[in-house]
Design a protein that fits this description.
Chain A has helices at 2-5, 61-72, 74-81, 85-98, 100-117, 123-144, 147-157, 167-229, 242-265; strands spanning 12-16, 21-32, 37-47, 52-56. Chain A is α+β, with helices and mostly antiparallel strands.
Chain lengths: 269, 269, 269, 269, 269
């Protein structure tokens, strides 16, 4: 009882074989709309030979839906209950795991759209999108990671409460949790690759910007200096003549052409 | 005895089965206010059939508090002591582990506030906050990591000093230490993700700054050059006329419009 | 049957020993030309003592080719079928694994050409090529990773359906999948090294660009300032004389030489 | 014998049970002052029932010191020798491991001083300090890593040469080597975190520098252009009047105020 | 036979116990001078009770040398052959492993010279050297990694073909391959640390360059503006007087001193 009340719990399965029941804690992702973050919804359950009690700290939609369907639909209730408490637990967990995939799909969709947009959109949005996707993947991993050994333990202990032909069912749950974990691993690799690509693109664009600045600076700073020289109020050779103007213009065009050739050679243009 | 006196010790459990006692060293995080750093507080204990001696190199608050409560409150003392020395050790360790979580919560709070502020605040503070949080997480991990195998060993060896129905208790301690480890792992991932995001944001902002500089440079360097040309003290066509002024102004406006169009096309504006 | 219909499946082998058949799901890479991406093609199979049924969600070319050859060539069919259903499955899987290597070769070729071009080409293309190669490797890994334990299981379970001398054959399949995994690991290391190199090169080139800009700025900004000083419409010493011009020119050449010496010393030139 | 002479050896323990002796190779860090680098000092030993021969490729100070003390101090010698050859080996290794910690402390001290200075000192020194600390940690890890399985093996094989009550002693050596490894792991994490922080700080400072440049450029480039326009030797409206001057000055002050407001809004000032 | 002919093979040992021979595939690094790259040279061997056949896809120098020595030197041949086929295989493999170390030494030498030069040389060469060393280490790891389990297997299976006293010999081969792997791991850490250091140095140098540019810009842009103001062809207070000149010069010196003080305070000078 203490475990149910205490707030900090890891997913675990405790087998009270003497008292004839199984106590388990499992965590499932639940999107909290208020803080726009993925939180762990805790599901505690007591599984006895002919009863199943579940307690959760937040409302887990699939559980609520299953139970309300059980209340309303007598036929469904009989069908479900006659197969024993183990089968009922399976139905609850199966619905909860099914509910995990749409969240994963949403993450996958976000990653896809980041990949498509990475060349085109302003980098600030991309940085923020990548950061959010990454934090979501990390939160999800935090919830699923300690789940996996607990599920394995559950499969081993559940036998007592299940007709024999149903033992394979819990295998499916482990399969689902392993699949979620594989996908999260893959998403983590993808989002990190996208982040690296984005970082490279930002660096590359910075080079582009700097090249333009440097080309303008390297061409016009010397030229402006030249005009400055001939704008001084001192007596230089050719001052106040037409010839000087055309000579200077020639000089300037020479400088420009030389610079452009230099930058072409450096492949900056 | 040598182990108690020597300064460098890893967490460990030595079973002196012949002498009938258990010697253990465990480490707990203790925040040292002087150097503002997380240090390892060492707890050495001798657990005999009817005695428990604990020695610690720094004051561990939860231990002090428990012992002073034992001294003051006779009822509590009796209640605690009648269950044997193993139970007493459990109480000590349980209090110490409970004391670990507030420090973790403080780290989590810091990470949350970094995440909220990362877009808005000056990057220097963020860099320093991230660095401090990271060092704290690393220090914490250093303390907890070697603890885990020692605790597992303790659980196996403690049986002799415990009434049977209490054996599950030490499971809770392992659970707590695993939970701390999971959280630290998660925090490490989070802080690294925040660091990467911050790095990307700094790069992105640098691009912003450079774009502004480049746009100003690319527009005004050529224009200033133009004014320089017509400021030279030589005789150029149209020198000293009104027409020339308006022609030049037209030329300049053309340059500006062209440049802005070019930068719009490059999406720098 | 449910497993065949449901969309989300991990590679797995289920042994329905009572019913006398083996059900398996394996994934193979299939290049989807529409989205230019590597997807997982799913191959489900039922292997009975004398039948093999395969179902796949996308067309797997090697399977189609094998089956059409079986249809057309009677001799080949007899030869294949007389060795039993296990051997037939081997042929299917062997063809599928053979088909994996050309895709790997294509990735290797891409990595080679990136390595050759990394010094010479524009960095934007390189960034995009590296990013695409990386995503392809990640997609491939996602497909092959969960395959490996399933193949191991298949090898252990396949014995019933195989003449004894053929047991080594399935070893070859595991060998092939391990080899693919090793290559993917190696490619991942290579592409990450290329990415780091490219990042360093971009940074290095940025330094080059900035050095040019700084050299031009540091030489011509002071000089232009000097010409500005002597262009002011105030009476400075030497105003309107020839001597002043040559003094100023001397001053400027001195500045230029000094600056170039300074930048040589700093090794920026 | 061949193993002693050959130069390339990994730490290992070979049990020549038939000949009744144990041959071992262990590596210990030895600071080579000439190249200012941490090298592996090799200690080869032959441990027989009543003899211990040690050979080392470089002078290992703790071994030299122990042996010279044995030579000088008869009482110490007797005390040491009467406990058997296994005990003597323990003393040698214990001294060698004790000698490992001061080097670790020096690294820890360096990391602490880098952390304190990271905000204040010039980044070039920090980069070089971090790089040196990292290389030292890597060298140390290279020496200790293959040591650990060899020590475990030694503990298992040493039993024959030790009185029973001393078996726990070799546990202490393993403890010491594990502690060194844990510390190196921790130091590696710390130095990598410091490197990342330093990298972020350099990027941040670059932003600072660029902001200053951009603010100056964006304010004075347009203003200089304006003065250029009115410095041209053409007839513009208001040329040669006092009013024009004050109008222009007003225009300039307006530009400056507008720019500063813009940069305040962008939080660059 | 198929395995020898097929091109894609992982290192492996197949024990054809019934036919009384052992078939193995091992890979060794072979430097291909044409493409300047490390490739895997494949050595296939058939080991029977009294024969050893080796086949390799490229010329492996040590094997060629051993065999030509065997051909020429009758004494050596007899000595080698009388110890059985297992011993002969050992000699071949031992020579091949000995041949691995010079390549490793060359890599180590390159890393050392990169470390020495990293502060001084132009960063472009360093980037390219680091990249090459890294690719070489990655290629080497690719060759050695799958080798290790194959060697372990070989040691277990070789017993049949070896006199008992020689069994320790194959231990040496495993030792050598483990040592190579350890060194490659260490080199990988070293080269990655060098890359990070180089990256930090490039960033640091960029800061240096930018600081110089900014200092020049921030000092001379305002000054040039000032000269521009007093170069305008309008009537400003003090126009055409000596006093104005000296007032302006004073103003400029004040600006310069103020700027330098500001940059000193910011530690940019």
């Amino acid at each position: 009882m203490e475990d149910v009340l205490s707030k900090r719990q890891r997913p675990k399965i405790d087998d009270y074989a003497d008292e004839g029941y199984l106590f388990g804690i499992l965590h499932f992702p639940a999107y909290d709309k208020n803080v726009q973050r993925l939180n762990a919804g805790e599901l505690d359950f007591f599984l006895g030979p002919d009863y199943l009690v579940t307690i959760s700290n937040v409302e887990l939609l699939p559980v609520t839906r299953l139970f309300s369907r059980v209340e309303e639909d007598e036929h469904f209730r009989n069908q479900l209950f006659e197969k024993g408490s183990g089968r009922l637990l399976y139905e609850v967990l199966d619905d909860l795991f099914d509910y995990c995939f749409p969240i994963l799909d949403k993450i996958a969709y976000k990653l896809d759209s980041i990949e498509d947009d990475i060349d085109e959109r302003r980098s600030e949005e991309i940085v923020s999108d990548i950061s959010k996707a990454k934090q979501e993947i990390i939160s999800y991993r935090k919830i699923i990671k300690p789940q996996r050994p607990a599920l394995r333990l559950l499969e081993r202990r559940i036998g007592r409460f299940l007709p024999e032909e149903l033992e394979l069912y819990f295998d499916d749950l482990i399969d689902a949790s392993e699949r979620i974990w594989d996908l999260l691993d893959n998403y983590k690799e993808v989002v990190e690759a996208l982040e690296d690509t984005n970082e490279s693109l930002i660096s590359h664009r910075q080079n582009d910007v700097l090249r333009v600045l440097t080309v303008f600076g390297a061409i016009f700073l010397p030229l402006t200096f030249l005009t400055g020289v001939f704008g001084m109020n001192v007596l230089y050779p050719g001052e106040g003549t037409h010839t000087a103007f055309w000579v200077i213009v020639g000089l300037m065009i020479g400088t420009i052409v030389g610079m452009i050739a230099f930058f072409r050679y450096k492949r900056w243009l």
